[in-house]
Design brief:
There is one protein chain. The chain contains 5 helices and no strands. It starts with a helix and ends with a helix. 87% of the residues lie in helices and 0% in strands. It is elongated, with a radius of gyration of 19 Å.
Amino acid sequence: MERKEEVVWFHTLLMLACILTGLMAGGSVDRYLVQVPAWRHLNIISWATFTGYAQFGNGLYLYPFEVLGSFILLFTTSAIVLMHKDAFRSIALPVHLATIFTTIGLTFTFFTFPVMLNIQTMGNNEAQLHQAFDKFHFWGLLRAISQLLSFIFCVWVLARNYRLNRA
């Protein structure tokens, strides 16, 4: 990659991807270290009601934006790295790992989304809601781990790239 505009474009995409993966990772850490343990002490119907409002309120717009946005940005940066192997050889591994983990997180989203849709039809059936809670948080925890790893690799790319540009 020779032109300065192309390098700036790549760095912009990478920075935006890092921001989105950071938002997802931060939300996931909060969810699994704070929220889920708290929900386990409350009425399952309260969880279902809250989840319905959260997932199908503002979450209906924010979560797909974060998940799809980070995937598209990281997929694009990986493609750029593949097209310009020599220019990005030193950061290729963490870029590709960030892309792989965000793709895995997107895949786990496809396992959690149907659970959320079904909660709407379960009413006050506590047994079904407990199963939904467990299933959602099983896949959600795996998704959270992959999102966190994607963010870590994004930060690694930014740190490594910063050091290379200062040298």
